[in-house]
């Protein structure tokens, strides 16, 4: 830990000014830390070897837990069946209050140096140095989806346990050794060519889903943007869409989702196909430039009538006006609706649906019927159910020579997809959720089991292909 000189002098005093008052500096040091933590932390230079998004596997970055409670660190919480727990990070069983992180700091184990100084429990987080090579600390609390019961970490109740639960189930499943290849269909243990579809999601420190998630085997992966609960929002990319895939961050899609959740009637941000920001953005009549990769704004803010003066403006891409056809229609309706509401008049509802790139959404209500439409409002299937994702993707895949099977009653992906002489189960995004088997074993597939397995219920993953013999599976060459 690096602490600037003024703090050292303040904390321990000098022989000329504090002679005979050995405890004065330390006591003042403690009072300042307790009474004015923000002021106190200005004297601390944080030493964080690991960036927040680079914590070692099995740890979570938590702010305000290290170096006198002024700095962040990667915290390792207790796992299932570990003993001597004192609480849980999960809000259902105590939880972490970001407004008062002291309880979390006190759950951090003291280091050897802290023990020598007599600082007691929690010294490793509050009063002592960090480990030499990385800012990783251990907590006596149980991890998310676990509760501390009789000083041991046990599973939470059934139901949605959040992102980290799926992560832990994947890790537990993967850690099992491979069984005998002859009898493997009687075992729930991981087999590479059979269970390669199982998904390990990326999670935030507070047990929510990261906005960008990549699902499926490496050669069939699809990255999608999701909300904190893991539900799909606008934005996706396939590996064959190289630039979209490699630069995807979903920052724009996340912002649009947050504005919509806050009740915004019309959002005019423009997102690219992969959920990133477009370089030119306009909100409430003002326009600015933003870097799609770093999400940092640059240049001036100008009225929309002067957007052509911005460095990111490209006439051949944007044209004379910012709003596109669909959102222009919807925005005009939203403005009128807000005016009517202000006058106490009930505004009519709109059936128009626009995507965050300003184009028409996949499901449109036309002439008293729902249709699957492309982004230009052209009908591509009738009738539409609650999907249309497959019909939309089919249009994209044509350029790459890929064929997908869509349901005729909804435009969604069929439960079982075929590639050459093999078949497999797929989810609503078309991502493979089960093993790839030869076509003659199609009736052996149990797609509901594979979807549950992908969602972290790994107890019967072997039933994704019921009683399939080893020769049913497509082996890696």
Backbone structural class? alpha+beta
Query: Rough shape?
Result: globular
The strand order across the widest sheet is: 3-4-6-5
**Helix proportion range:** 10-25%
How can the largest sheet be summarized? 4 strands, mixed
Strand composition percent: 15-25%
CA-to-CA gap between the ends? 51 Å
Mean pLDDT: 79
Question: What labels would you give this structure?
Answer:
477 residues; alpha+beta; 24% helix; 19% strand
Description:
This protein is an alpha+beta fold and 477 residues long. Among the domains are: 2-45, no CATH class; 52-155, no CATH class; 212-358, no CATH class. Helix content is 24%, strand content 19%. It has 14 helices and 20 strands. The protein has helices spanning 5-12, 24-35, 37-41, 102-106, 112-117, 123-126, 163-175, 192-195, 242-247, 251-261, 315-318, 325-342, 389-397, 447-454, and strands at 2-3, 44-45, 60-66, 71-78, 87-88, 136-142, 146-149, 152-155, 212-215, 222-226, 232-237, 280-283, 286-290, 297-303, 363-366, 369-373, 379-381, 416-419, 422-425, 437-438. The chain starts with a strand and ends in a 23-residue tail after the last helix. The model is unreliable at 1-20, 111-133 and 182-186 (pLDDT under 50).
